[in-house]
TrEMBL record:
This is Amidohydrolase-related domain-containing protein. One of its GO terms (molecular function) is hydrolase activity, acting on carbon-nitrogen (but not peptide) bonds. It comes from Cellulomonas shaoxiangyii. Residues 72-397 form the Amidohydrolase-related domain. InterPro entries: Amidohydro-rel, Metal-dep_hydrolase_composite, Metal_Hydrolase, Metallo-dep_Hydrolase. It holds the Pfam family Amidohydro_1.
Amino acid sequence: MARVPPRRRRTPARRETLPEDLVLTGARVWSDPDAAVSEPRSVVIRDGVIRTTGSSDSVPRSVRRLDVRGRVVTAGFWNCHVHLTGQPWLRSRTGSAPDLQAALDDMFLRRGFTQVLDLASNPLTTRALVRRISTGELRGPEIVTAGNGVRPWRGIPFYVAADLPRYLHALMPGPATPLAARLVVAAQAVAGAGVTKLFTGSYVTPTRVKPMRLAVARAAASEAHRRGMRVFAHPSNREGTSVALRAGVDALAHVPDETDGTESLLREAAAAGVRVVPTLHMFASTVTTDEAYLAPIRGALRGFVDAGGRVLFGTDVGYMSDRDTRGELEAMHAAGMSPSDLLRSLTVEPAEFMRRPDLGTVEPGMRANLTVLATTEPPTPADLAHVAAVVRDGQVVYERDTSSAAGAGADPGP
Ligand SMILES: [Zn+2]
């Protein structure tokens, strides 16, 4: 799995204070979606790992303290559907650090994301960005990428084709045979992909969906699984959803927006443990705000959740220009998901899906990837979009300008 490699670190002869040591004071901890928000306490972090949540009396004064009085601390959020395409990511290799940092802050850190799944981008630019974050030159989330994705034979999505000169269409491979599909997935894994993305239904024009051949999708999914990679499908319509489920994918990267006939398939997906990344706000933001189009998509998500389906939070930011997560959170809430359900989709579910037992809750022994919400109250869906600070691997990687922070200094704690 492609991850940012751990920072190299001297082993001190005697224990010194490391940058990955930190104490959050006055934190109201929402340790997991089923727990209540705690009374104010300290979260003690050493070597990038949460050691205790409670008192900080025994921690040396030399260790950095971040006062988060009254704010609510959760596990670091995941965005399970992003793209690092377009500007400024095209200049990830040579672009200036301040430009890229501003984009990383606005797209990910100020939204609370400590982990993101890049569901298809140019691997060369993504790799450069991952490298610059891993060296500490840039502050950003952990990025797991799907490389450039796999499309059906002669089935490049029209919105990708529009942005890409014809000679570059080969960047997004469309294997014609099962063997070719295996080779494509293998090559992407070698190039650093940590998940696989299949366009099992590809919008080749705004109104026509081309499905991937089932045998091709099956071979690609099986090769990915053999390599320990999770498989996402872009389903689009009934046929694309059907191919995805028959091929054995692990998650749908969208609720199918052509909802006609997908109800029973989504129930089948829920029963099979196939996850769904809703991306509801993307449909409103990039297609139309017409309720006649949006209501059935929300209804499809509601049916999936009612059938016991498990949801991964994801917005499709990068394809969609709106970086605010509030629209997605409120649309998911309108589909019947409670604030606890939303937190689950942002933390516990993706951590489990991506087989990361060190992430997802705020408990001793867990990696110190944390999101600090600006709220002082039990969080509403909109509060989950309002982030005061972000900690990754025990380091403060984002802090909202406190001069503009609403409620800063309110609700004094210990
Ligand atoms: Zn997408």
